Every structure is written in structure tokens, then in C-alpha cells.
């Protein structure tokens, strides 16, 4: 189950679980509310999202377009490797602003 939570001061939406056809409605509402109630970039924290289906990808693209039309930016934070693979296979990593978790430096 996906549980969107919205943190107003820093314009971050934290998602957990799976972003799919069953959960995209709640996430869409949360993102639209954030866009309407704030200024600046919209950050979606994907660190705890296990998977994204085509409907979830569509929501991310639609949100990206909406923020761009307002002169703002959608930023996807720290997606898990499985989500990074989906973004790469669909080539959405070239369109969406993805900030990956830095790899630890080993000695």
C-alpha cells in the first residue's frame, strides 16, 4: 500500500510501497495539493517505493509537465534500483530530474 505524506516546509512528498493503478489517485491528489499550495520545486521522495507501473510513470510525467508549465521543477529523490531501472528502460531518466542516492565510498 502506498502512503503519501506531504511535508509543507520543504515541498517534499514521501512515498512508500508501490506506485501503481491502485494508488495513483491518492498520490495525484497529494501532488496537486502541494503544487497548488506552494512555490518552488516539488520533490517526490522515492526512497521507499518498491515499484512503479505504467500508470505511476504517467503520473510522474504529468506532474513534471504541470510543474514545468508553472516555471517549477519536479525532482525525484533517491529512487530504489528497481525504480531506476524502470526509468532507464523507458528513457524517462532523460526527461525527469532524478537525484540518485550517492554510492558509499569504500577504502
Q: Short description, anyone?
A:
It is built from 3 helices and 5 strands; from the N terminus they run E-E-H-E-H-E-H-E. It has 107 residues and is α/β, with parallel strands linked by helices.
Query: How much beta, percentage-wise?
Result: 25-35%
Low-confidence stretches: none
> What fold name goes in the CATH topology slot?
Transcription Regulator spoIIAA
Q: Main β-sheet, in a few words?
A: 5 strands, mixed
The gyration radius over C-alpha positions equals 13 Å
What can you see in these coordinates?
The chain is α/β, with parallel strands linked by helices. It has a single domain, classed as STAS domain (Transcription Regulator spoIIAA, 2-Layer Sandwich), CATH 3.30.750.24. Helices cover 36% and strands 27% of the residues. It is built from three helices and five strands. Strands 1-2-3-4-5 form a five-stranded mixed β-sheet. Helix 1 (24-37) links the parallel strand 2 and strand 3 (42-52). Helix 1 packs parallel to helix 2 (54-69). The radius of gyration is 13 Å and the shape is globular. The model has no long low-confidence stretch (mean pLDDT 89).
